[in-house]
Specification:
The complex is a heterodimer. By secondary structure, chain A is mainly beta. Helix content of chain A is 11%, strand content 37%. In chain B, α1 runs parallel beside α10 and α8 (202-210) packs parallel to α10. The chains are: A mainly beta, B alpha/beta.
Chain lengths: 65, 272
């Protein structure tokens, strides 16, 4: 199954979870996740099922104005 | 002489937003400093009430360059105000705000919904509804907006307990471009007003505080100064000076000259 994580394409087994995608990119806390432009709270990372071509955003804190 | 100020001009005169008090009327951005150390020093000398922060994709050069930022935030221990910078749609704003709430563990959000990439002008037609959605979701929304009176009133109508009009486009440092509208805004709206964006000099900050604005939020004017740390201090002092001047009640401008030295008893009066 093809998914996009931070604009990079990856292959994951079907029915993978958000937590699988996070492990794949070795995400380092603190971070937050959105799938297809919708927020996925960390309490749901382990049971949120991904689908083919899902767009996953993993964001980190940076400076801002 | 260092006479103490009356109580209404010092400790009792704190910035209150959504019922929460802040140590300073200066809010400071954290971007574009020459180094994290300079940022830390600037924050230390200016003691801002809040510092603004943002979110970017992990694994990108931006995020990697800020890998120590999280530790610095914890070290500085200043309340943070996450922004939604770069968002161009209501859904982007809402999702970014929800992610920011989880990462930074705060309900505060600086609502930025950009309508034009060249001027970074906010999308005023969709700003109000987006603010309302965020407020209903439990956020304390500080909307970045223009100085338009009706827009600001509508933001208040949907529950914004403070509004942040720009003085000029972000990062331009031009100072207040529309004093008439900004003073009118101050006169008509009773909620806290913070000037966000466009200030370039401490005198700009002092001026808007003299008009009765409740605070300023700035970044570039400090970060791009030759000495950001000293400039941060200058802005903090200017904000305080403007606030105290506002509370003091300025004199009304006069059309004609009025001697300040008493005329009675002037030597040589009518002798020449």
């Amino acid at each position: 199954m093809r998914v996009i994580v931070n604009q990079v394409a990856y292959e994951l087994p079907s029915k993978s979870m958000v937590s699988d995608a996070l492990a794949l990119i070795k995400a380092k806390p603190p971070y937050a996740v959105a799938v297809n432009l919708h927020f996925v709270p960390k309490t749901k990372h382990a049971d949120f099922v991904l689908n083919e071509n899902d767009q996953i955003e993993v964001i980190a804190p940076v400076t801002g104005g | 002489m260092n006479a103490p100020l009356p109580n209404n001009l010092n400790s009792a005169d704190t910035l209150v937003l959504y019922g929460e008090s802040f140590a300073s009327r200066l809010l400071l951005g954290t971007s574009r400093y020459p180094s994290p150390q300079v940022l830390e020093n600037a924050v230390q000398v200016s003691n801002p009430g809040m510092i603004t922060v943002s979110l970017r994709r992990q694994g990108t050069s931006t995020a990697e360059a800020h890998s120590g930022f999280w530790d610095l935030l914890k070290k500085m221990a200043v309340p943070v105000l996450p922004n939604t910078a770069g968002c161009h749609s209501p859904q982007e704003v809402i999702t970014t705000a929800q992610m920011a709430r989880e990462v930074f563990e705060t309900d505060w959000i600086k609502l930025e919904l950009i309508g034009d990439d060249y001027t970074l002008q906010p999308d005023v037609l969709r700003l109000v509804q987006t603010a309302e959605t965020l407020i209903k979701d439990g956020f304390k929304v500080l909307p970045y907006c223009t100085e338009d009176l009706i827009l600001c009133q509508r933001l208040v109508d949907v529950g914004c307990q403070a509004v942040m009009p720009w003085a000029a486009p972000i990062g331009t440092g031009q100072g207040p471009l529309n004093p008439y509208a900004m003073k009118l805004l101050r006169d008509r709206l009773k909620v806290p007003l913070l000037v966000d964006a466009g200030l370039g000099l401490p005198s700009h900050a002092c001026t808007v505080m003299e008009w009765g604005f409740d605070g300023v939020l700035l970044n570039t004017a400090v970060a791009l100064a030759d000495d950001p740390v000293v400039m941060a201090k200058a802005f903090a002092m200017a904000v305080d000076a403007g606030r105290v001047a506002y509370l003091s009640g300025a004199m009304k401008p006069q059309e004609s000259a009025q001697a300040s030295t008493p005329l009675v008893g002037t030597p040589f009066w009518h002798q020449s």
